[in-house]
């Protein structure tokens, strides 16, 4: 959490469009979600190229003013008492959401836990869950 | 730059529509635009800020009615011409050839 760029680089992931990373952690109190309202800034080295919906006008326009409505469109209902935080990426800084660990995964290996995480969970439009 | 790209908070764009199992590129031309953009960037034709600015200068109606990689193509056409890398005449000749199917 202190130095996301370095932590991610330890896994051999670094490079263009991911030079400066900040990780934001989901907790029961806070759900984070990321957008680039001005263009399509996205952490390429970590997540690959962004999907069309992330780069198009509807998401970019509406996430900052109606995040709960947008998340509901993705099938995500965040409880009223959980704060929703929207992070607007910029040319120099990229955000990555650290999803909450799903219940019932105590003692799981890193590999098994990785199967619980989707790209959308790292954008914030989904949550991590046990693989189907 | 108070352009149309500054979309945050605007109304009227409708539902988000994620595509299930979305391919990275929807057509071969998109893949080529990506490749040419990267090659030209590596070759020093522009930096990323200049590239974004060329997209921001597109003009609102065209920006809203064209796709993401069409924005990239537009930016390259703008920047290559401004740098003198290609001329307007070369572009127009190629468009004419392509529309006649003689390219």
Structure keywords:
heterodimer, A: alpha/beta, Nitrile Hydratase, Chain A, two-stranded parallel ribbon, B: mainly alpha, 5 helices
In short:
The complex is a heterodimer of chains A (132) and B (103). Chain A is an alpha/beta fold and 132 residues long. Chain A contains 7 helices and 4 strands; from the N terminus they run αββααααββαα.
The gross shape of chain A turns out to be globular
> Mean pLDDT of chain A, as a whole number?
93
- Main structural class of chain B: mainly alpha
Structural class category of chain A: alpha/beta
Poorly predicted sequence stretches spanning 5 or more consecutive residues of chain A: none
Q: Give the proportion of residues in helices of chain A.
A: 25-40%
The name of the CATH architecture of chain A is Alpha-Beta Complex
Biggest interface and residues each: A-B, 25 and 23 residues
Number of domains of chain A: 1
Topology order of chain B in helix (H) and strand (E) letters: HHHHH
The span between the termini of chain A is 29 Å
Profile the largest sheet of chain B.
none
Quote the average pLDDT of chain B.
Answer: 95
Q: What quaternary form is this?
A: heterodimer
User: What do we call the CATH topology of chain B?
Assistant: Cyclin A, domain 1
Q: How many helix segments of chain A?
A: 7
Name the CATH class of chain A.
Alpha Beta
**Alpha carbon gap, first and last residue of chain B:** 37 Å
Number of strands of chain A: 4
Report on this model:
Chain A has one domain (4-123): Nitrile hydratase alpha /Thiocyanate hydrolase gamma (Nitrile Hydratase, Chain A). The longest helix of chain A is centred in the first third of the chain and has 7 residues, at 4-10. Chain A contains seven helices and four strands. By secondary structure, chain A is of the alpha/beta class. Chain B is mainly alpha-helical and 103 residues long. Chain B has a single domain (28-100), classed as Orthogonal Bundle (Cyclin A, domain 1), CATH 1.10.472. Chain B has helices at residues 28-42, 48-56, 60-65, 68-83, 88-100. The longest helix of chain B is centred in the last third of the chain and has 16 residues, at 68-83. Classes of the chains: A alpha/beta (132), B mainly alpha (103). Chains A and B meet through α3 and α4 of A and α2 of B.
């Amino acid at each position: 959490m202190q130095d996301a760029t370095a932590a991610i680089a330890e896994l051999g992931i670094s490079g263009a469009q991911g030079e400066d990373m900040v990780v934001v952690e989901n907790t029961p109190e806070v759900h984070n979600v990321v957008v680039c309202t001005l263009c399509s800034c996205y952490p390429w080295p970590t997540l690959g190229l962004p999907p069309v919906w992330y780069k198009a006008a509807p998401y970019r326009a509406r996430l900052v003013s109606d995040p709960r409505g947008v998340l509901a469109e993705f099938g995500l209902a965040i409880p009223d008492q959980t704060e929703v935080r929207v992070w607007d990426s910029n040319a120099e800084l990229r955000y990555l959401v650290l999803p909450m660990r799903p219940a019932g995964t105590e003692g799981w290996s890193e590999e098994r836990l990785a199967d619980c995480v989707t790209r959308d969970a790292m954008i914030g439009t989904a949550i991590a869950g046990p693989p189907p | 730059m108070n352009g149309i790209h500054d979309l945050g908070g605007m109304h009227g764009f409708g539902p988000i529509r994620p595509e299930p199992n979305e391919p990275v590129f929807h057509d071969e031309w998109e893949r080529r635009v990506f490749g040419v953009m990267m090659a030209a960037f590596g070759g020093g034709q522009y930096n990323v800020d200049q590239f974004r600015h060329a997209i921001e200068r597109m003009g609102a109606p065209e920006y809203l009615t064209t796709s993401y990689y069409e924005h990239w193509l537009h930016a390259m056409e703008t920047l290559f011409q401004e740098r003198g890398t290609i001329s307007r005449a070369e572009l127009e000749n190629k468009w004419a050839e392509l529309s006649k199917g003689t390219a």
